[in-house]
Amino acid sequence: MQKKEGGIPIREKTYSSAAWIKLILCNLVGIFMFFETIPFQGRNTIPLDALCSVIGKLVGNAQQWVVVAMCIVGALMPFLKKNWNQNGTSVVFTILKILGAFCAVMFVTKIGPREWLESASLLPFLFELGRSLSLLVPVGAIFLSFLTSYGLMEFVGLFVQPLMRKIWKTPGSSAIDAVASFVGSYSVALLITDNMYQKGTYTKKEAAIIATGFSTVSSTFMVTVAGTLGLMEHWNLYFWTTLMITFTVTAFTVRMFPLNHFPDEYRDGVTPKPERIIDQNRFRTALRTALDTADRSGSLPVNIGKSLLNGLQITCTIVPSILSVGLLGMLLAIYTPIFHVLGFIFYPFAALVQVPEALVAAQALATSIAEMYLPCAFVVNCSLITRYVVGVGCISELLFFSAVIPCILSTSIPVRISQMLILWVERVMLSILLAGVVAMIVF
Predict the structure, then answer these.
(1) When you count CB atoms within 10 A of the terminal residue's CB, does the N or C end of the chain come out lower?
(2) What is the C-alpha to C-alpha distance for residues 330 and 126, in angstroms, rounded to an integer?
(3) Is position 3 within any domain?
C-alpha cells in the first residue's frame, strides 16, 4: 500500500533489526568519539584526541618517518594519477607538494637553513602539526564513518530542510553538504555539490553559495586547532559555537556581493531537476530516510576500511601542502609586511568587540588566506579570548589557498578567485565580530 508525504509517494517498509542497530549504535559511537568530554592526563578532551595521543606514544619517534612517507606519497600522487599538469592550479600545487616533501626530509635530517629548522614558528611548528594530522585524520576518518554512513546525516538534512531556503537560499538537500563538511571533509562536500550542479539539481547561485559557504574543514581538523590553542578544555563550546558562527556568516554573505549577484539559473545544457518540498510528517520521513541509509550501508568492516583509506589519501594530500604553504606563509609574515598590512583591514572589527590583543588577532587571521592553520602560530601565547576568536575565525573564514580554493577551482562550479578573495575578507570580518561577541558573553 502506498501513501503520500509532502506530495511524495512512499511505500511502507519494515526495517530489519540490523538497520535499527546500525542507526542507533554506530551513530552513538561516532557521537561519543567526537563530542563526549573525558578526563585524560590531567585535562579534559574528547575520546578521539585521547586515542590519537595514546597511539602517538606507542609509535614514538617512528611517527616522524610516517610524516615523511606521507609527504613523499602526497608529492608522487599527482604523477601517479597523471593529473599534475591538468591546469595551472594543478601544476602549482604539485610543485608545492614536492616542496612540502623536501621540507619534511629537511626537518628530520636537520639539513637545511638553521632558522627554518630551529625557529619555533617555522618547521618545528609546522612539522608538529603534520605529525598530529598524520594520526588524527586517518583515525578520525574511521570514526567519521560512524557519523556519515548510517543515517544521521540524512536525518539531520531532511529535518532542517525548511530552514535552508529561508536562511541560506539553498535547497534542503544542501544541509547534507554542510553536515558532510563539518563531520567529514570539504573535498567530499564539494564533490557532492559539483555532482548536484552538473545534474541540474543546484543552480549556479545555489552551487556557489554551498561551495563557498558550507565547505569548511571537518571536525577532525578542528580538534587540531583546539589542541594547538589550548581550547580542548572548552571543546564543546568551541565546536558548537564555531559551527553556528560559520553558518551564520554564510547567512550574511549570501545577501552580500558577490553571491547576491550570481545568476539563479541552471548549468547550460542540463535539464533542471529542482528538489521536491517535504511539508508534512517531516520527522517520520527523516527517520525512514535514515533507516534506508543504514539498511543499505553494507559491511561495517568494509566501510571502516574505505574510510581509513580515504583518510590516508586526504592526509597525504594536505600534510605536504601545509608544510610548504605554511612555510611560505610564515616567511612572508616574518620578512614582508603583507599580512601586517592586511591585518589592518580586520583590526577595527577586532577592536570593536574588545579582543585583548586586537592587532595580533587581526594580523594572525590575515594569514588564513594562505593556510587555515597559520593563524594559530601567532596567538598560542595570547589570552584565552584572543585564542578563541582566532580559533573560530580560522575555521569560519573557510577559503584558503592550500586546499579549499584549488578544490573549488577544480570543479565546474562557476566561482572565480577574485570572488573568493572578496568572500574571504567578508567572512573574516563577520567571524571576528560574531566570535568576539560570544567571547565577551562566555569568558
Answers:
(1) N
(2) 10
(3) no
Q: Please state the pTM of the whole predicted model.
A: 0.75
246 is a domain residue: yes
> What is the extent of the structural domain holding 219?
13-442
- Residue 331 to residues 61, 305, 317, 323: CA-CA distances in angstroms? 27, 39, 22, 12
Tens of pLDDT, residue by residue over 116-132, are: 998 877 888 888 878 88
- The domain total for the chain is 1
End-to-end alpha-carbon separation of the chain, Å? 57
Average pLDDT over residues 187-193: 69
C-alpha 51/C-alpha 57 separation (Å) is 10
**Residue 80 included in any domain:** yes
Convert the pLDDT of each residue in 93-115 to its tens digit.
889 899 999 999 999 999 989 88
Tell me, yes or no, whether 425 lies in a domain: yes
Mean pLDDT to the nearest integer, 347-372 = 94
Q: Are 140 and 48 in contact (CB under 8 A)?
A: yes
d(CA 167, CA 255): 10
